[in-house]
Structure formats: C-alpha cells, structure tokens
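Researcher: Go.
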Amino acid sequence: MARIEQVKLSMVTLQPKVRRTDAIQSFESQETPIVRITDSDGAEGVGYSYTIGQGGPAILSLLTDSLVPQLIGQDADNIEKIWRSLLFSTHATSVGAITSLALAAIDTALWDLRCKRAKLPLYKLAGGAKERVPMYTTEGGWLHIDTQALVDDAVSAQKLGFSGAKIKIGRPHLSEDRNRLAAVREAVGDNFEIMVDANQCFSRAEATRRARVLEQFNIAWFEEPLPADDVVEHVRLSASTTVPIAVGESLYSLSQFKDYLTLGGASIVQVDVARIGGITPWLKVAHIAEAFNVPVCPHFLMELHVSLVCAIPNAPWLEYIPQLDDITVSGIRIENGFAIPSSRPGLGIDWDWEQLNSRALPQFAVSITKP
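Model: Structure:
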C-alpha cells in the first residue's frame, strides 16, 4: 500500500500564442495550477488545472488550506474515495468552478500516479477504446478574425488532414455570421465539418433565429447557444432545430449533465476534465452519455483529453487548441489530422521542468509533507 507523503503546489501563467476572442470574452492568459503528489514508494504523479485569466490564486488557496492537507497519509490508489471525501468536505462551495478546478488538479495527479505504478498509459487504464481520434481546429476561428483569414485557416487545416473547424459566432448582426460561414463552406466543400460556438451569448429567440441560418450550411453543432445553467431553454431550442446542440464546458457536476441528457437538451456533451473536477467524474459523464447514445467532444485541454477520448467508444473528436507548448518538451502526436495518445505510463504529458520551475510564481509555491 503506497501512502501519500508529500504534495507540492505551484502555478504558472501562460500567454496564448494567438489572440483568442469570442462573443463574451478575450482569452488573455491561462493561470495553471500544478500539483505533484509523491507516495511512500517514491513514485510521483503530476496533475494540473486551469483558469482563463483569473481565479488561479483562489484555486491555490483552496488546495493549500483545505484539500491537500487531507491527502497526507491516504492510500493513493483509493482515487474514488479521495475524490468523494474532498468533494463532501467542501460541500459549502460545491457545485462550483473553483472547487471543481481544485479537485481536478488533485485527481489528475492521482490518475497519473496510478498509471505510472501500473506501467500503463492513461488511455489504456481508463478503457482503451481506440488508438487515435480525428481532430478539428478552433485556433483559426476566433470571433475577431476576418473572413478571408477564417477561410485560409480552414483550408489549411483541411490540407493537413483535419476533419473540421470551429468558427466563433455572435457578431452584432446575423448577416455577419452568415457571410463568414458561407465563405468557409464554399471553400472547404461539403465533406468538411464546420462547428459553431456562441459562448452563451444569445437569448433563446435569437438562438432560434440563428439556428435557422446554421441549418443552411449543414453545421455539425451549435455550441453553448444560451447560458449554460438554463436547461429548459436548451431543451426548447433543441426541439426547434435540426442542428445538434452542444453543451458542457461550463457545467461542473454529474447531475447537471444528467439533467441535460434526460431532458434532451444536449446532442453533444463537451465535458471538460478540469471544470468537472478531474478524470474520475469525467469518465462518469462519458459513460452516462454513452447510455444515452450521445457523443462526447470535450472542451479544450487537448494534451490531456487525447488520452480520455481514446479511452471511451463515444468520442468522435478532439479539439485542437495548443495549450501547454511553453511548458512541455514535446506536444501531442498528430498524424494526418488524427491525434495519437501517448503510450508512455501516466497522463502522457511530457513536462519541461526547467521551464515550469523558471515560470512558477514564487508566492504560490507550497510543499506539504507527512508530519
């Protein structure tokens, strides 16, 4: 039995290599908490989480003061027990983004440790459903990008073997979104998927109006058309359009996904491993979605999600948005538009510790050990 003896915390801030804008925000920076768990055999697991621009210090505070001290002395293999005990110890702040993001940093570290001890890659230990997954790109589809640049990026991705591209929508007038999508569809043809993402900016009336336009271009899915906590309006919208509705990046609990699936408010589940609280609940959501015959197309975090989507049978896509290039030695393996999960034991993320240590913010560096 390997007991947890030490946990080290740190945080780095990463700047996107391209400007990222959508209908409600601009992605200026990524605060990235890092958790390193060492057990009594000397094995180490590394996990992480993220925020867009702010909230990182709150996550580190919750980890340092409330969650990590509970880990010391625990059996590192009891991941389900640890996850549930930490969740219920923070019941006053659950369900919520900060708590879920903190839990995810711990849970991913524990899964990394489990995989390393088992000498298996995450995609096999978590299920091993497939050995590659098609990719679509979002990195060239941000809202501020002009139409010709959208077209150029989609055509370039198509030539590289990518099977689709996501375009951000939510320009002030419907005609702007229509013209941008029409130009991309004409350039890539009918056999290349186009997804759209509104980032929760519409009312149901406006989302219904825009969905009629999306139907003209055979859009693969309409992502976050409405505020994510409004299940009923998503159900009504879903019933009014043939465009599949995608929801999930802004949901933080198993029960929220259950409500969407039971009521028919989501045709695509976009569960985010950080925002749901880690790999443990991510797999539960994925298996619930499978029972409803609904695909899982996770949000962001491609470096971690590549292993998870290859672990399950109902994940047809991986989203391409490079996130960790500055703090990893090598990125994910991509061949002809397909992502290949790492075969190395663990999460499969090749951390660059020299860069991580040099970029770590000293005020958030904490080490908690067995007394």
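Model: The longest strand covers residues 4-14.
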